[in-house]
Amino acid sequence: MKTDTIAAIATALSDSGIGIIRISGQDAVEIADRIYRSKGGSAKLKDAKSHTIHYGFIVDGKSGEVLDEVLVSVMLAPKTYTAEDTVEIHCHGGVFIMQRILEEVLSAGAVNAEPGEFTKRAFLNGRIDLSEAEAVMDVIHSQSELALKTSLSQLKGSISKKIAGIRAKVLYEIAFIESALDDPEHISLEEYPERLDGTVSGLIEEVKALLSSADSGRIIKEGIKTVIVGKPNAGKSSLLNYLLGEDKAIVTEIAGTTRDVLEETVRINGIPLCIIDTAGIRSTEDIVEKIGVEKAKKYASSADLILYVVDSSVPLDESDREIMELIGLKKYIVLFNKTDLLPVVYEDVLAEELGIERSCIVKTSIKHETGIDLLEKKIKDLFFEGDIAFHNEVYITNIRHKELLQDTLQSLMLVKKSLDDRMPEDFYSIDLMNAYRSLGFILGEEVGDDLVDEIFSKFCMGK
Question: How large is the angle between the packed helices 130-140 and 117-124, nearest 10 degrees?
Answer without folding.
Answer: 150
